[in-house]
Design goal:
Radius of gyration: 21 Å
Structural class: alpha/beta
Shape: globular
Largest sheet: 8 strands, mixed
Oligomer: single chain
Number of strands: 14
CATH topology of the largest domain: Rossmann fold
Distance between the termini: 25 Å
Helix content: 40-55%
Number of domains: 2
Order of helices and strands: EHEEEHEHEHHEHEHEHEHEHEHEHEHHHH
Strand order of the largest sheet: 3-4-2-1-5-6-7-8
Number of helices: 16
Strand content: 15-25%
CATH class of the largest domain: Alpha Beta
């Protein structure tokens, strides 16, 4: 039990690595917010070795977990006995889980102990299954079975968008709440735009495109290269910068070289300031992942004043609104959407992007997640949350 009026919120997450993107950011910002609100967040993640450290988002406990082949370094909390013992030692007041597959048993563990629990849907089950090759009907059937078990196991299911909520509405789940994620509007801002940085990466091209994504099958990074090829075939002098790493990186590099596509692969960019500079410098950002339920990278680009072309199959059109464009999952359609956005006056399209991002902030997100936990802030979190921006060491 946390001291004072605060609650000990134990959070479990798989698929988090030092080079993770949106999930790692969301976990960090929510943990920071819980701590600022007077609660005690404890994050448990898999890693190569066991460790514990105190960070800006509270305690982080790492348990040894096996690496999943072909995922580019993702690990899972597979030692059920060790994790169960840790949960019993931590004695959580609330449990928050960011994986509905290998960790679903923890919801049942919490239910037996009458501990309120939340499962956060960071992706749609049927969307991920489709990206791995299942037919639409087979993916929907498998997702429905998985989601029924999750909805029964946890006190509440948190979805970040209406799009993500639909697969639970489809099965008649009554314990679903919506809590959007947020964006750092101070770090991600239009004033970061540098014409010198843009010129350096554009290398003489008229259009600078940016893909900030993990290079894995469910993110469909190849669609960005398809779009670039289509644009160049139409006479558009465009170039693409890719910030991200993953199991598909090698094949994408070989393809770009074979097809003589002007693509600059930066690998994983750990410096979030540098990422924001890239997002501000780009003319447009591409978000081709069809299973995205929110898309933090896309929202960060909008906050930097850069419009986004997103997969129409994902939740991003709901997030992006009229500050970008939705495209079918082909290079040709993405190329058309790029040209449509570029036809708008630059100043107005960049202003619209920033205005859209300002509808989302982490204060609102933290408040929504705490509401899902029935956790009233122990004190006013706003000033503390803002002051915590200076404590990035350990992130």
């Amino acid at each position: 039990m946390s001291g004072g009026n605060g609650l000990r919120i134990v959070r479990l997450a798989n698929f988090v690595t030092p080079s993770s993107g949106g999930l790692r950011t969301a976990l960090g910002e929510l943990g920071r917010g819980y701590l600022a609100a007077g609660h005690e967040p404890v994050l448990v993640v898999p890693g190569e070795t066991e460790s514990e450290r105190t960070t800006f988002q509270g305690r982080i406990i790492t348990l040894p977990g096996p690496e999943l082949p072909g995922t580019g370094g993702y690990r899972v909390l597979a030692g059920r006995r060790r994790l169960r013992h840790l949960l019993e030692e931590l004695a959580p007041d609330r449990l928050e889980v960011s994986d509905r597959t290998t960790l679903r048993w923890t919801g049942e563990w919490a239910r037996r102990r009458r501990i309120p629990s939340v499962m956060v849907s960071h992706e749609t089950a049927d969307g991920v299954l489709r990206t791995w090759g299942l037919s639409e009907s087979a993916a929907a059937r498998a997702a429905d079975r998985l989601n029924r078990r999750s909805a029964w196991a946890y006190s509440r299911i948190v979805c970040t968008t209406e799009w993500a909520e639909r697969e639970f509405v489809r099965i008649g789940a009554r314990n679903v709440v919506r809590a959007p994620l947020g964006v750092d509007l101070e770090r991600c801002r239009p004033g970061r735009r540098s014409t010198a940085l843009r010129a350096r990466h554009a290398a003489g091209a008229e259009v600078l495109l940016l893909l900030c994504s993990r290079l894995s099958v469910e993110k469909r990074p190849g669609t960005a290269l398809d779009a670039l090829a289509a644009l160049r075939e139409r006479g558009v002098r465009a170039t693409l910068v890719v910030a991200g790493d993953g199991p598909l990186k090698g094949s994408l590099i070989r393809r770009a070289k074979a097809e003589q596509l002007p693509v600059e692969f930066l690998g994983h960019v750990a410096d979030r300031e540098r990422v924001a500079d890239l997002q501000a410098a780009a003319d447009l950002c591409l978000a081709p992942g069809p299973a995205e339920t929110f898309g933090l990278s896309a929202l960060e680009a909008l906050a930097c004043g850069t419009p986004v072309v997103a997969s129409a199959s994902s939740a991003l059109p709901e997030v992006v609104g009229d500050a970008g464009a939705a495209a079918a999952d082909t290079g040709e359609d993405f190329a058309t959407a790029v040209q449509d956005l570029l036809a708008r006056p630059e100043a107005s399209r960049r202003e619209a992007a920033r205005a859209r991002a300002e509808l989302f902030d982490w204060h609102r997100s933290v408040a929504a997640f705490l509401t899902a936990h029935d956790a009233v802030p122990a004190h006013d979190a706003t000033s503390v949350h803002e002051g915590a921006n200076a404590t990035e060491a350990g992130r």
